[in-house]
């Protein structure tokens, strides 16, 4: 079952524009991220992060999408975009495919989840900092052994 996801896992970064950061709470912004991922991703794991340079709040997610993504080349790298009708409207986003070689998987997971340690510690006092995820119920029903309970990525 997990092999059907090979090559379909993406690293997503969702950031907020200044207006959204000023007029919304951290809980509200987390809800925006959760709703967008729930509507567009089959499975995901997401957590909050803050930029090193200016401390800007953003979210990282490892996601398997339900939608078709368009491929774009920029400066030798491949990026993916979502259909215009469902674009992230609260700021900026970028999507990169997680390559299937072990080194790329390790580097991507390390980058995407670097804030998890912070998030777990901070969640003791700040519920908005807790990492969150979605698992497809139909997918879970199809599993037949404990070995298959591992994330598809």
What does this structure look like?
This protein has 5 helices and 7 strands. By secondary structure, the protein is α+β, with helices and mostly antiparallel strands.
Keywords:
31% strand; 5-stranded antiparallel β-sheet; two-stranded antiparallel ribbon; alpha+beta; 29% helix; 153 residues; 7 strands
Number of helices: 5
Strand content: 25-35%
Largest sheet: 5 strands, antiparallel
**Strand tally, please?**
7
Structural class of the helices, strands and pairings? alpha+beta
Q: Secondary-structure element order, as H and E?
A: EHHEEEEEHHEH
The spatial strand order of the largest sheet comes to 6-1-3-2-7
Shape estimate: globular
On the 0-100 scale, what is the average pLDDT?
76
Low-pLDDT runs of 5+ residues are 137-149
Q: Please tell me how large the radius of gyration is.
A: 16 Å
Helix content: 25-40%
Q: Termini distance?
A: 11 Å
Task: Give a summary of the structure in a few sentences.
This protein has helices at about 20-25, 25-40, 100-110, 115-120, 135-140; strands spanning about 10-15, 40-50, 55-65, 70-75, 75-80, 90-95, 130-135. The chain is α+β, with helices and mostly antiparallel strands. The chain is globular.
Please outline the helices and strands.
Elements (H helix, E strand, L loop, with lengths): L8 E8 L1 H6 L2 H15 E10 L6 E9 L4 E5 L2 E5 L9 E7 L4 H11 L3 H7 L9 E3 L2 H6 L11
């Amino acid at each position: 079952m997990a092999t059907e996801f090979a090559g379909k896992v993406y690293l997503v970064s969702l950031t907020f524009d200044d207006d959204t950061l000023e007029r919304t709470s951290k809980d509200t912004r987390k809800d925006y991220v959760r709703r967008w991922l729930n509507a567009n991703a089959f499975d995901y794991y997401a957590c909050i992060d803050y930029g090193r340079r200016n401390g800007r709040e953003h979210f990282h997610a490892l996601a398997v999408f339900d939608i078709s993504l368009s491929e774009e080349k920029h400066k030798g790298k491949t990026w993916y975009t979502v259909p215009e009708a469902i674009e992230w409207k609260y700021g900026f986003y970028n999507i990169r495919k997680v390559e299937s070689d072990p080194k790329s998987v390790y580097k991507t997971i390390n980058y995407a989840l670097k804030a998890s340690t912070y998030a777990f510690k901070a969640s003791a006092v700040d519920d908005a900092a807790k990492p969150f995820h979605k698992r497809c119920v139909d997918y879970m029903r199809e599993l037949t052994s404990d070995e298959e309970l591992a994330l598809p990525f």
